[in-house]
Amino acid sequence: MMKVAIVMGSDSDLPLMKKAFKVLEDFQIPYDAHIYSAHRTPVQAIEFASTAASSGYGVIIAGAGKAAHLAGILAANTILPVIGVPISASLGGFDALLSTVQMPTGIPVATVAVDGAGNAALLAAQILALGDKELSAKLSKNRIAMEQSVLKKNDELEQ
Ligand code: RP5
C-alpha cells in the first residue's frame, strides 16, 4: 500500500495533527510525519514534495496555522493529492483556512475544516481505497459503525 505523508509547519502543530496519526493507525495505513515550514524551511519543503511520489507516498496531508502556505507550496511541487488542514493557531483558524483553501487555478488543495486533521486522514484513506478493496471494505464498515452509534443514541433519547 502507498504511504501517507503528514507534514506540519511547526512542532506546535503536532498535538492537533496526532488526530490524523490515530485514524491512519486504526485503518492500518502506513504513514510518516515531518516538520517542514513553507517559510522557515522552504527549500526542504519543496524537496520533500518533489520527491514524494517517487518515495512511495500516495497522498500528502499538510497542516499549518496563521499564514498557512505549506499545503500550497507542497501542492505546487507534486501531482500527488494534497489535503490541507488549516490550524487554529490564531484568529480562530480563519486566517489559515483562507490561506489554505484559496489556491490559484491549476494547483488545488483539498481543504478540510479548521483543525480537521481526523477528517484529512479519512479523506486520505478514501483516496488510497480507490486502488485497495480491503481498505475500501474497512471504510464501509466504519460508516456502518458510525450509523449504528448514532441510531443507538437516538433510541436512547426516544425511550
Ligand atoms: C505556522 O505558524 C505553523 O504551522 C503553526 O501553526 C503556526 C505557529 O508556529 P510556531 O510559531 O508555534 O512555530 O507556520
Automatic annotation (TrEMBL):
Residues 2-150 form the PurE domain. One of its GO terms (biological process) is 'de novo' IMP biosynthetic process. The keyword Protein transport does not apply. It catalyses: 5-carboxyamino-1-(5-phospho-D-ribosyl)imidazole + H(+) = 5-amino-1-(5-phospho-D-ribosyl)imidazole-4-carboxylate. Its EC number is 5.4.99.18. SUPFAM superfamilies: N5-CAIR mutase (phosphoribosylaminoimidazole carboxylase, PurE). One of its GO terms (molecular function) is 5-(carboxyamino)imidazole ribonucleotide mutase activity. Substrate binds at S10, D13, R40. Pathway: Purine metabolism; IMP biosynthesis via de novo pathway; 5-amino-1-(5-phospho-D-ribosyl)imidazole-4-carboxylate from 5-amino-1-(5-phospho-D-ribosyl)imidazole (N5-CAIR route): step 2/2. The keyword Isomerase applies. Gene3D superfamilies: 3.40.50.1970. Keywords: Isomerase, Purine biosynthesis. Belongs to the AIR carboxylase family. Class I subfamily. NCBIfam families: purE (TIGR01162). Catalyzes the conversion of N5-carboxyaminoimidazole ribonucleotide (N5-CAIR) to 4-carboxy-5-aminoimidazole ribonucleotide (CAIR). This is N5-carboxyaminoimidazole ribonucleotide mutase. It comes from Sphaerochaeta pleomorpha (strain ATCC BAA-1885 / DSM 22778 / Grapes). The gene is purE.
